[in-house]
Specification:
Length: 225
Amino acid sequence: MNSLLQLTVIVLASLIPGVLWVRFFYLRDRYEREPISMLFRSFVVGALAVALAAVVEMPFTDWVLPDAPLIAQLFAAFVVIGLGEELFKALAVYLAAYRTQEFNEHADGIIYGAAVGIGFSVVENVLYAWAFGLSVAPLRALVASLAHACFSGILGIFAGRAKFSATPGAEWAKGLFYAALSHGLYDYLLIARVGSPLAAVVLVVVLYFLLQYHLRRALAQSPFQ
């Protein structure tokens, strides 16, 4: 397989599941679904955020190795990756959707947050599949994409609250904290090889059900019922 064909296959193997994940979250928004153009915008801005994250993470590549010191692994997982990536995704949510008229109910934060996270994950998945082979694409499309959707969706819970709060900065800060914490724990489980990779999968499943719980609560407050 030549390089161009291989890249095309990798991009499609990452992009198509990403689009399906965005559609999945889009359909969860029962009362006033967001415009496709806004979801696309959030997806693209989330994808672009990978470049910023890569610049921050590049000096710390040795810190994510299994034989790196524990303190280095913890710092890389929770600060460099967890906080760093979620900070850039928070910026993406803010720039792509938060300031628009379409962001008009609490649930919108979760939907746009998930779209940003999925866009971010698609680019990451392409890079991983290019580096390690197409065989990693299916698992990353399933687990890593959902993981990023959950991390940014958790941020979105608080972004939705911030939109209608007298103290929006505090809500954004809480969202960033919980998103970074969950993301950092996920990466630390993988970096330090705590237990088995199944532990990270279990964490993603728990985060998914937590996110769905908060989405149902947000929809129960929707003015568009």
